[in-house]
Amino acid sequence: MAEDLIDHLLGLAPDSPLSHLRRQRPEARRHAEGAYRELLLPPDPGALSLAERAALAHRVATREGDAALAAHYATLLAASGGPAEGARHDALMRYADLVAGEPEATSRADIEGLAALGLTSREIVATTQLIAFVPYQVRVLAALRAMMQESAR
Amino acid sequence: MSRFTLKPVGWRPRLDPVQAETATPAQLAALDACPPAQRRSTYFLTLAHDPGSLGERGALFNIVMYAEGGLDRADRELATAIVSMVNGCVYCTSVHAKRFVELSGDEPAMQRILDEGWDGEPNPRRHAIAAFTETLTRTPGTTTATDLAPLRNAGLDDLDILDLIHSVAMFANANRLMLTLGDPVLPRELRG
Fold first, then answer.
1. Is A147's CB within 8 Å of B158's CB?
2. Non-local CB neighbours of A133 within 8 Å, separated by 6+ positions
3. What's the count of helices (H) and strands (E) in chain A, helices before strands?
């Protein structure tokens, strides 16, 4: 089983106890990696560019306080040409802050705002899926780091 | 009175969902990766606008919540109900609180948690799961080995803890999707 993003960010050796544990749930490992690749590096990104995707993920990882994950997305962002500027970029970042930080405060108007910028339903769903997936990664990483502390004792 | 309930709560999307009759083969394939009971739900039909992310994420959700062995399924539902309360997702809370009751048979325990929170939870295993779940949900960056100790004391092994982590993380995701892409439809007696 090849190294996935979580192994990579945690620096897990293939023969470490935590790596063995993660392999007891091979499908969770595979589909979390699949969701990451589908959201950040899709073969057909449509009108939500790879740079926009990396910028959204970077924004959420940063505001959720995961330095390693944020650094990874900063690298992806740089590799995809860096952040665009303008009204669309600003609106996407505001949407990321809201969905990641205060999802209960969202309203239909936020979705309509994205549509007014020209995002299709597919792009609105992809944007929301991407913003909502980074908090999954942040919590898995945080809790696995706690397990690594346990075994280091 | 708490706004969280075991009564059925509906969900109304903020985007027109995909219609099953006119869905593309890619959308249908992605829906087939989702839990069988829910793959024609309004929620999954809304997510089907982006089939790539739905397929992988649906398969992930399925394995996190239903994988055999490891953490007891009632405990996974307890954790996901609590994440949903912390995040303010009344819809998700109602669904997963109900599943906890079905799996555990302990409706009074869940009703008390919905009404009063979990601080006073008398069952030490449930208390440990609830406390860890709240910390990882609210402040993931502060989670340390110290937060795992009560789970170990309650008898959870490595795989149980991994399943708990995945369940909590999955609902950081699920609550954000539900709260953003739609609105809860509350039972009549809870409408303000």
1. yes
2. A35, A36, A39, B53, B57, B173
3. 8, 0
What CATH number has the domain bearing residue A80?
Answer: 1.20.1290.10
Number of domain units in chain B: 2
Q: How distant is the Cα of B40 from the closest Cα of chain A, in angstroms?
A: 17
- Judged on CB neighbours under 10 Å (0-12, 13-18, 19+), A118 is exposed
Cβ–Cβ below 8 Å for B53 and A27: no
Cβ neighbours of A69 in B, within 8 Å: none
Work out whether the CA dihedral B54, A98, A114, A47 comes out positive or negative.
negative
List pLDDT tens digits, range A2-48.
789 999 999 999 899 999 999 999 999 999 999 999 999 999 898 89
Q: How confident is the model at residue B30 (pLDDT cuts 50, 70, 90)?
A: confident
Number of H helices, E strands in chain B: 9, 2
Quote the pLDDT of residue A28.
97
Summarize pLDDT for A103-124 with one digit per residue, the tens: 999 999 999 999 998 999 999 9
Q: What is the ipTM of this complex?
A: 0.97
**B140 and B46 within one domain:** no
